[in-house]
Amino acid sequence: MAVFKHNYFQRKNKPRGPRYNNRITSSEVQVISSDGENLGILSLNEAISKAKKDELDLIEIAPNAKPPVCKIMDIGKFKYDQQKKANKAKKKQKKIELKEIKLRPVTEVHDYTFKIKNAQKFLSKGDKVKFTIRFKGRELQHSHLGNDLMDKIKQDIQSIGKVELQPKFEGKQMIMVIQPL
């Protein structure tokens, strides 16, 4: 005698996608034919038999409507079209990254201009830039140098970006975030 134990962590196979044919729970449905014509409200069995006659499936398109709206079409083609739409929408999304540029209050002019050029390149691509000025030892007593440097950065970047997060201290470093215009 075989005893089957139910595994607590086993994933239940929930049907993916829209309900179709016998999986539709409503007794009456609003039916749209494969060529887009409204056939009216039919019983579920009648609607499924019409779909089978055309060798197609009855797919629930608007499950929350009263009664649910179903369309007669091929389930494989419907799922394929949905996947194509999802992929197209995903391609159009723009992911904004946060690039960080680290400075010191005693950063030399050449290094500063190089880092500002990089920041402008990041901003033109549509990314945000986080400027971090790190203070070491007694430099913390001269925080006005950090404020002056942040003001200079604002002046140099204002044509391509605007300040999202004003300069503020977090421990031994000063942080400012700039977003593209």
Overall description:
The protein has helices spanning about 45-55, 75-90, 110-125, 145-155, and strands at about 30, 40-45, 55-60, 70-75, 100-105, 130-135, 160-170, 175-180. A hairpin with a 2-residue loop joins strand 7 (about 160-170) and strand 8. It folds into two domains: about 20-80, Translation initiation factor 3 (IF-3), N-terminal domain (Ubiquitin-like (UB roll)); about 100-180, Translation Initiation Factor IF3. Helix content is about 35%, strand content about 30%. It has about 180 residues and is α/β, with parallel strands linked by helices. The strands form two sheets. The chain has a four-stranded mixed β-sheet. A four-stranded mixed β-sheet has the order 5-6-8-7, with helices on one face. The chain has four helices and eight strands; from the N terminus they run E-E-H-E-E-H-E-H-E-H-E-E. The mean pLDDT is about 85.
Give the gist of this structure:
By secondary structure, this protein is of the alpha/beta class. The strands form two sheets. The chain has a four-stranded mixed sheet. The protein has a four-stranded mixed sheet with strand order 5-6-8-7, covered by helices on one side.
